[in-house]
Design a protein that fits this description.
8 helices, 148 residues, two-stranded antiparallel ribbon, 46% helix, globular
């Protein structure tokens, strides 16, 4: 969305998880996660909340394979992508928020909503022609209202 992805496509596309699929190791760095992990019920609830969205479009980013290998499973607040525009700039603007695990579900869901809105506006002809169209999308434990 607004990014020049020519370099990414030319160098080969890889799907990056902003919040790594294996993120349990971050507990040592994140005070909130460390505290949550001491309470089995809260930890299980938070873990399920993350697992419900970790493979969602709001947590995915297209980058080159070599950059994906470089970023590996770093903490999302430490990831710095080489490209500009669209999602890359979004990540840079929200880097501080990624520092707190409390923000993860909201960051993933809000970015997913923006991507979904972009896809509808760009790819679905029916929604292109209806400027004031409202759509409510249900996702686990969240509802995203998109105003077109």
């Amino acid at each position: 969305n607004g990014a020049n992805i020519r370099t990414v496509v030319k160098d080969g596309i890889s799907v990056e998880h902003i919040l790594p699929q294996a993120w349990d190791w971050i507990k040592a760095r994140d005070k909130n996660l460390n505290e949550l992990s001491k309470d089995e019920v809260k930890w299980k609830s938070f873990f399920e909340q993350i697992n419900n969205c970790i493979n969602g479009i709001g947590n995915l980013l297209l980058i080159t394979g070599s950059e994906n290998s470089t970023e590996k499973n770093k903490h999302p607040a430490d990831k710095k992508y080489a490209y500009s525009g669209g999602s890359y700039e979004w990540h840079d603007k929200n880097r501080d928020k990624w520092g707190s695990s409390k923000e993860w579900p909201e960051l993933i869901h809000s970015r997913g909503g923006e991507i979904f809105k972009f896809m509808l506006a760009t790819l679905v002809d029916d929604f292109k022609t209806h400027e004031n169209r409202n759509l409510t999308v249900s996702v686990p434990e969240n509802s995203v209202e998109l105003k077109m």
